[in-house]
Predict the structure of tRNA-Thr(GGU) m(6)t(6)A37 methyltransferase TsaA.
Amino acid sequence: MNNLKSEEVTVRSIGYIETPFDEKFAVPRQSSLISHGHFEIHFHPPYDAEEAFKGIDDFSHLWISFLFDRINEDDSFRPTVRPPRLGGNEYKGVFATRSPFRPNRLGLSVVKLLSVNRNHGKVSLIVAGADMVNGTPIIDVKPYIEFVDSIPSAVSGFAREAPVMHQVSFSEEALKQIAETGIPDFRELIEEVLAQDPRPAYKSRHSDERLYGVGLCGYDVKWQASESGFTVRYLEKA
Amino acid sequence: MNNLKSEEVTVRSIGYIETPFDEKFAVPRQSSLISHGHFEIHFHPPYDAEEAFKGIDDFSHLWISFLFDRINEDDSFRPTVRPPRLGGNEYKGVFATRSPFRPNRLGLSVVKLLSVNRNHGKVSLIVAGADMVNGTPIIDVKPYIEFVDSIPSAVSGFAREAPVMHQVSFSEEALKQIAETGIPDFRELIEEVLAQDPRPAYKSRHSDERLYGVGLCGYDVKWQASESGFTVRYLEKA
């Protein structure tokens, strides 16, 4: 039914996204759970041409197709993964999850379109809610079409409900350091990222004494978990 | 920010979809507007392994990433397209549309999961509502996650509302021929396809005398447009 030609195709990135997440560990596990932080999609020429975005301002949300480029390309296909949602100790089929460890390493996220930057005929997009590492290659941008894409009645298996959010507090030192960075809404961003518990899933049910670090906006944010939630201790310039 | 390695990647099809649409002309312009007809996603080994689908039955809807393989790969990038929605005579930026004429020829559709076929450890998926030509290469399957993907408040520009549906009627001869094919729900499928007016957009405001043909389920379905709607005249074996 398929000719051989269509079985393989070369995909080129059309741009990349700038996010506050310097490493995989910092990235929220779904899009739309993060509302703070600066996210900008930059396009390579010729995809940055202003006319290629004519009409995009009329849409509130966009689908971003991207490549999980931090996943080893040479990894052979593994049919099952252990979703963090299930505590990391239950296997699901890769096609029943959005795990990055999948054929073709294709990622898909919905983002909110905040504004369209037009500068001398070149465009970049400011968006909210992306779950991608800083520099992730973008391969397509499409409008979200409500009457097709929004299915409030959809049944979503083990991902039925939004994840539980954890309490996040800050030491005096951390608050002082955060203020000194001058990064807008940096405290709120840290709160949103930690509230989702970025620890490996098998740890997430326990409190431990360990000092964790998470790379955000060029800083290594040091924090600890306790019974009552997470506490940010201090920041280090990465 | 990006290394060169990540700018290009080879994508392999993991399978293909069997649909009633023998040609581009027959394909509905959005997914989810078609509820009849047989749609089955077949997977190439090793992606057909039963364990790769463990848990998928718990989801009602899936995202299908596919390749627009009927679009000429050598077409250079064109920043604007003329959406059929706008009568085909207004230009929009390609990133503000879901036109198949786009970088990387990546398609994305949400489908309803009807059932999971398991046969000697191999899986195929029966789905409803796909807007793909028969044999379209599939490159990924992901679950639809309601709390992330469904955004009823999303604003959708020129695609704000579902398209207007047209009235479809059948000649006696067509009804007899359709019955003789033995294809389940074939009449309903033809109705759904024609109701969306598959004619080129610039024709869709006019009635004309022309006899159109549309390739469905191995038949060339012949029909005409009039003031009051569309009439199916007869079928020819394709």
